[in-house]
Write a structure and sequence with these properties.
CATH topology: Glutaredoxin
Mean pLDDT: 86
Order of helices and strands: HEEEEEEEHEHEHEEEEH
Distance between the termini: 38 Å
Largest sheet: 5 strands, mixed
Radius of gyration: 18 Å
Shape: globular
CATH architecture: 3-Layer(aba) Sandwich
Low-confidence stretches: 1-22
CATH class: Alpha Beta
Strand order of the largest sheet: 9-8-7-12-13
Number of domains: 1
Number of strands: 13
């Protein structure tokens, strides 16, 4: 599924990973990009404008208002799910617990799971779901927003847009998306595959060491 998700990404960048001048691993930046010219110290400089995650407004399992601004200064992992999912979601979130346990004490890291069934997945339902997973604190948020807005938001994460079939069964992508502090997509991983989740954990650690991801002192 990771290959499927990455196949949907519009990339004209680096290959899956590249090395910088210091021979350190650098994760790719996915999505559209365009050159921009700006003036710095009186000189014209060409920079790159990368695709980023769109703005959103939601509420989490505690009833707190959560927007894109709530994630400023954080590396985070995102996914799409619904609490009554009978197939991949339980597997995905059991695997996501490994990510949660690895980084729950990290101050600038979050996990966010958007429900694609906001009609059923109310705040109390999301809280009960989180409690069942044994979660506490604010490392992992389960988010409810307007259905159309969440479905549209999925496009900025470069994954398949959720949909409902004729039997009103929800269809969605099972990827975990790694997002950096600049709100750029840096990786997609099959949330049902423990080996890819292990790779996600390793890549988060790599991303944390990138100069523009380090917490300012």
């Amino acid at each position: 599924m990771r290959k499927l998700a990455l196949g949907l990404l519009v990339v004209t960048l680096w290959s899956a990973c590249k090395l910088n001048s210091n021979d350190k691993k650098v994760l790719p930046i996915y999505g559209n990009r365009k050159p921009i010219t700006k003036t710095v110290d009186g000189k014209s400089v060409t920079d790159t404008l990368y695709q980023t995650i769109s703005k959103f407004k939601t509420v989490n399992q505690y009833g707190d208002s959560i927007s894109n601004k709530s994630l400023d200064g954080n590396i985070y992992v995102a996914d799409f799910f619904f609490t009554t999912c009978p197939s991949i979601c339980p597997i995905m979130h059991r695997n996501m617990l490994s990510v949660y346990n690895a980084f729950k004490s990290t101050g600038d890291f979050k996990i966010i799971s958007y429900t694609i069934d906001p009609k059923h997945d109310s705040v109390p339902v999301l809280k009960k779901y989180a409690d069942k997973l044994g979660l506490s604190g604010n490392t992992w948020w389960f988010l409810q927003g307007k259905k159309d807005s969440i479905y549209k938001l999925s496009e900025s994460y470069l994954v398949r847009k959720p949909e409902e079939d004729a039997k009103q069964q929800f269809i969605h992508d099972g990827s975990f998306l790694l997002i950096d502090k600049q709100k750029r997509v840096r990786g997609a991983y099959d949330g049902t595959d423990p080996k890819q989740v292990d790779q996600l954990i390793a890549d988060i650690k790599e991303l944390q060491n990138e100069p523009d991801q380090v917490i300012a002192q």
